[in-house]
Structures are given as structure tokens and as C-alpha cells.
Amino acid sequence: MKFHKRRPTALAALALTATFAFAGCGGDDGGDGGSAGGSGGGELSITMLPKNLGNPYFDTSTDGAEAAAEEIGADLEEVGPETASPDAQVSYINTVAQQGQDALILSANDPDALCDAIDEARSADVKVVTFDADTNPECRDLFVNQATAEGIAAKQLELISEQIGGEGEIAILSAAANATNQNAWIEMMETELAENPDYANIELVDTVYGDDEDQKSFDQTEALLQNHPDLKGIISPTTVGIAAAARYLSDSEYKGKVALTGLGTPNQMREYVENGTVEAFALWNPEDLGALATYAAAALANGDISGEEGDTFEAGDLGEFTVDADGVVLLGEPFTFNADNIGDFDF
Ligand code: RAM
């Protein structure tokens, strides 16, 4: 699948400069098989392991990674399982250790379950960078974080609150139950709902898991609506979940009555914004995220940085980044997509 960005209008480009520094277009196949991609012909060998293959979000982060690898002169290969489970990721990590790759970039399906395999890889001198979904910080060298968990949580609550007029029952349709990224965001949303007086009249009645599988997420949406007849809105903090929920809602009696927001890609959500099922949702630029993770991995593997707090490195067009506490590198802020701007994006 190919994802090329449309050129943003001058106005949109201006509005986005702060949060969306566009990396160059990758354009290579994001991978529908067990292994895909491959760029450059350089000295560093980097493996990219998303939660699973076949998710346009990760196809796009791989596009960004491939473009960065080409720029750096590194060989980058994407591998990954069909299902977003930790067990399925372990064998790929073992292979990276056996091959003695210079670096592994991964989005982890579990904070703990991959750590033994990652340890082996690090003992074989593989630098390990998590992106999108972290492991426990001691397992890896760096985590490239798409946006702060607080920012992501706050944005989604702001959107749902606006869309349901500040009161009523809401539910969350998440990804896999062990996903560190979604779980951190959900925890923060729960805290914010409990503590922020703006949300005193909003009640979170259920959280369900679609495992980042389209059909399961679709079925879970149907079940939520059946189990909670007074439901006013759904937050789905996963691009797979929100797209499946939007598809369900758009063909149902709930279209336009039950609000849906969360984290989605513009290409998957465009039709539902245009047909009035979804008013607004958020995300960051996955292409930039993949690129930044690749620059970070290369900086570690080249010995330019060790991953200590305060280390700085160059990430091509994205600029210079600093390693924060706990080995975290922050990409930016989430961005809100709606009917006015969705036409400016193609990913
Ligand atoms: C899905 C995955 C990914 C998450 C996005 C928002 O594609 O769960 O990890 O960051 O949604």
C-alpha cells in the first residue's frame, strides 16, 4: 500500500509547521508479508518490528523509517506478525539477535513479555529503540514517544466532551489489553475524568478491547451499543478501532447520534468525516515517528549518542532532538483532524 502526502495548502502548512514537520515521502511497500521494505545499501543494518503488519498506521511509520534509512545510508527491513501479540513478536527479536543487526526499532505489544528477548539482542550489541508503544524503560535504549500521554489523553477527552455537549455515558474501544501506549492513555483519561470538574457529568461506563483487529473491533462496537442503550459517545485510541467503529456507526441507527472520536489516520477516517459519522479525531504524523525512531537508532548504533538524558542528535528535516529522562525522545503534540483540514492529508 502506498501513502503519499498531498501537498498541504499554504494556510494548512503554516498551521501545521509546529507539529507536523514533514519527512520526505518513503513510498516503498509497507509490507503485507512477513518481511518487506529494504532501502539504502549502507553500513548500518536496522530491523523495524511494528505491533503487527497490515495496519496502515504502521505502513506509514515504515515509510518514514525507510526514507530516513535512505538518507542515512542504512539498510532497513520491516518484519512482523499478523496479530498484535507479544508472543508473536519474540521470534522476530530472536532473529535480530542471531543476525547481529545494528539496531532494532519496535512497537511493543507488552511492557514485560519481550524483555528477555530484547536483553539477548542487546547482549549481542543490538541497539534497541521502542517507538509508539514502549517496554519497561530498563529493557530498551530509547523510546521515541509520539506525544505525551497527558496530551493524548487530554485531547481525546476534550474532543468527546465537545461532541456530547459535556454530559452523558461514554465508553472506550481500545487495542490489545496489554498495549502499553493505549493503557497509559486510558489511565490518564480515567484520572482526568475523575479529577477535572469540566468532566463531572461524563461517565465512563465500559472499556473493551478489539485487539487491533478490524472485525473484533467492529463486533465490540456493536456490543457496546447494545449493552449501553444510553451511550452518548465512544473514544477509540487506536487507528484500527476507530475505523472499525466508524464503519459500524455509519451504517447504523446510531450514526450522528452516538459520537465517535479517538486516534485515527486521515485516509481511514475521511469517508466517515465526510458522511457525518465523525466530527473530529486526533493523531500525530506516523511517518515522522518512524523517521525519528530511525535517526535515533542510527545515532545509537554509530556511537553518536549513548541514550543518556541530555544527549542530542540530528533527525534530518525534523531537526535536532534531545533525549529526556528515562531515555525518552518526544516527537511533538497530537493534531486534530476535522472536515476543514482532512483534505490536506494523505496517510
Ligand atoms: C494503532 C496502534 C498503535 C497506536 C495507534 C494510535 O495503529 O495501536 O500502536 O499508536 O493505533
Give a verbal description of the structure.
The protein has 10 helices and 15 strands. Strand 9 (231-236), helix 8 (239-250) and strand 10 (259-262) form a beta-alpha-beta unit. It has 347 residues and is an alpha/beta fold. The protein is elongated, with a radius of gyration of 19 Å. A 7-stranded mixed β-sheet has the order 1-3-2-4-5-6-14, with helices on both faces. Strands 8-7-9-10 form a 4-stranded parallel β-sheet, with helices on both faces. Strands 11-15 form a two-stranded antiparallel ribbon. The longest helix is centred in the N-terminal third of the chain and has 17 residues, at 56-72. The protein folds into 2 domains: 38-147 and 285-332, Rossmann fold (3-Layer(aba) Sandwich), CATH 3.40.50; 149-283, Response regulator (Rossmann fold), CATH 3.40.50.2300. Residues 1-42 have low confidence and may be disordered. Helix content is 37%, strand content 20%. Alpha-L-rhamnopyranose is lined by residues 51, 55, 57, 107, 132-133, 175, 181, 212, 238-240, 263.
